Amino acid sequence: MVKKKAEQLIRDLHNARPQTPDDLHQLKRELAKRYGTELLSHTNLLGRYRQFLKDEREPANDHTLKLLRRRSVRTLSGVAPITVLTKPYPCPGRCVYCPTERNMPKSYIASEPAAARALANQFDPYKQVKGRIKQLENNGHVADKIELIVLGGTWSFYEKDYREWFIKRCFDAANGMENATLGEAQKMNETAEHRIIGLTLETRPDYVTEEELWHMRLLGCTHVQIGIQSLDQAILDLIKRDDTVESMAHATALLKQFGFKFTYHIMPGLPGATPEKDIQTVEMLFNDERFQPDMLKIYPTVVVKSSLMYQWWKAGKYKPYDDQTLQDLLIEIKRRIPPYVRINRLIRDIPGNDIIDGNLVTNLRQKLQERGVACQCIRCREAKGKKVRMEDTELVIRTYPSSGGTEQFISFESPDRKTIYAFVRLFLPGHSQQAFVRELHTYGEMIPVGSAKKAVQHVGFGKRLMAEAEKVSAEKGFNKLAVIAGIGVREYYRKMGYKDENTYVVKRLAK
Questions:
Q1: Global pTM?
Q2: Which of 155, 295, 332, 465 has the fewest CB atoms within 10 Å, i.e. is most exposed?
């Protein structure tokens, strides 16, 4: 495109101020016809528009920027998630449902989006993080607050040196330069442009030990995902999970004692399961204080060719749930989800071409909503881009027993409880003088660090929730409150009087 034409096209875009996605698509067609160009992509227009604003020193039209941003839902939960995969490596598990592809970590398929990116980058953590930051920013997202999600085989089974190197290289990529040690990289990241405010690792329950959790803390981990799959021991034995319900309960208790937030993976429709048994697992998750996960990933069981279960399916020994049975089951599951739990996923992101049998519906959430399912999970109630005044919210405290202690889920919500704006997870252990803030989260469109723009993240919810957590902890007799703060968010807590202590930030409470 001739430079003068390109400049005028972008000026017309700026002046037109489209209000809806339909307005933008119509405008793109008109501009392409007016200037004799091909229909430009959102990403192309976004880059040109940003350069125009910089060159002309024009104030940005935030609404135009928002419309040009691809998949804006990615950062509406307040952080930019970046997923990276570890190298292919042996796994201690024998699970029959697990894909086992050459040149991929156990349980991952090369055609899955994050796996494909990792493979293209030869599983190099630096390249994966750097490339994803660039892609997010090119698509109009702000990537100053990163939730780093490390997937792959069983994390705790990898060599210790590799784990430390992998995480250091992720921090190096976020910092934009290489540091000599992991500690130096973490220190730099506390004030970097791209801060890793949360680090997620996934492992097996039987690998959760005190020693392993301390090592995770040294790496900066704040969130652990563990595969539960089912709480029916007969099913666990049949699928060769090589784990027990008691082990899962023990791992969960340790995670809470260390202040981690945690996600369970569950798999409806496993061999030996029935919808009734799957419902029993879900009810046990929230009625038995030994469990009580913060988040769920629900992965309906599917058959892939590289799994042992494929042979069972081929021999007629196993058949996944049909669509109707699965959707009916998911409706019953969603009805049982407490308002302090977030359903992160309803299906696993396996491309349909790789699924031999099982669910192929990729928009299950939408399908269930069309059937009138009212879900009270956090994800279904997030404020996302909504604006709100503090006086239009209510402070809500939900209390429940949890692994020998008490959990308080303290939140700001709309009076009808249909929208949640912010929350804190406060764990009050049964045998300790130190309480834990396991998670503090404010929802809303992501705002760059230091921005004066008002949005849900900048009206004081976080500080008010922390003050409430401190008050409750002191009233319950605790003399310290520890926060499992991500590396890139420690400065926030220090400004509220918290001090670094043993990989946490801690405040002594006045009685």
A1: 0.87
A2: 332
